[in-house]
Write a structure and sequence with these properties.
By secondary structure, this protein is of the alpha+beta class. The strands form two sheets. An eight-stranded mixed beta sheet has the order 1-4-5-6-7-8-9-10, covered by helices on one side. It contains 13 helices and 14 strands. The longest helix has 18 residues. The protein folds into two domains: 97 residues, Penicillin Amidohydrolase, domain 1, CATH 1.10.439; 244 residues, Penicillin V Acylase, Chain A (4-Layer Sandwich), CATH 3.60.60.10. It is globular. Helices cover 35% and strands 25% of the residues. β9 and β10 form a beta hairpin.
Amino acid sequence: MSHEAARLHLDIAGATHHAVGTARGEALRATLAGAYAKYAELFRLLGITAEMERDGVRRVLTALGEWKPELVEEMSGIAAGAGVTLEQVTALNARTELIALGRSASHECSTFSATIDGTPYGVQTWDWHVELDEFWHTHTVTGPGYRFAGLTEQGIVSKIGVNEAGLALHFNILGHAADGPDGVPMHVLSRAVLSSCATVEEAIAFVRAAPIASSSAFTLIDADQSVTLDISPVGVFVIEAVGGSVQRTNHFQHETPLAEQKSEVYEPDSSARLALVRERLAAGAPTDLAEMVRVLLTDSTQPPLTCVADMSKQYGERWATLATVITDPVHREIRVLDGMPTDAETGEWRVLSV
């Protein structure tokens, strides 16, 4: 069976956030508990105790309840539909914030935007723990707000996506010394942006108004512009495109959050990957989507834009490119390859439209 045939896709719909959540939970009833168990194992390996997890979840629920309680209702619906607890679903959605409480060295995602024949696109690798490969899927979500489609993990309301208004969102994790679970989780913020915002400018204002207590980069693309955001507990900073392109790995690009970055988590790997992407783009802008993807091809002698798991290591240290993603906000499409850029020309891309 091919990856494409095996990879789960969900079409989720509901008139309310709770109904959307219930539909998601019911569709994931067979696998969501297993996804949580595997994440709980990872938390413990990273030094995040059960008590730390419970406390983090409590703080996230307090922050979300004050900001957008309908998103708590959505997670409650997931829990009810899947037969798990709200706390477990919240831990999945706040996995970035909980992992920030532990010890971790990471090899993460690489993203950039480019314009081809007048149309803007985004592309990225999604690098994550190879043991969690069975717990991700594609989805389309129809409910309150804009319809959107993309890639996410079991029980997590959003990650990378594009919405029917023509806004695309790419996602890279960052690390700041002040990160904690006292605000909106980054994955939940992604869902809120995609369902609420029609343009890059709307998304910037929306993120700046949200209660932020952790860090990530959202690369945002619409028909008119692309930017990448340094999102952190000390502010949200816009990094503008240069020559029609923004590039992103896993370190801050603005001096303010960079001053308190957890550099031990992503460096020097992140800077080396960013430098390689920029070097390749400076040598010539991509002229088609295949060339965009080839920018992210690397071998074992180069910074890992394409990440291959070292199976001699243990859980928590085996990083792999689980998916390659292209967004096309003008045509309201997202293309997802179940695998690495090395598979791009022979594998089947799943194309979702909204």
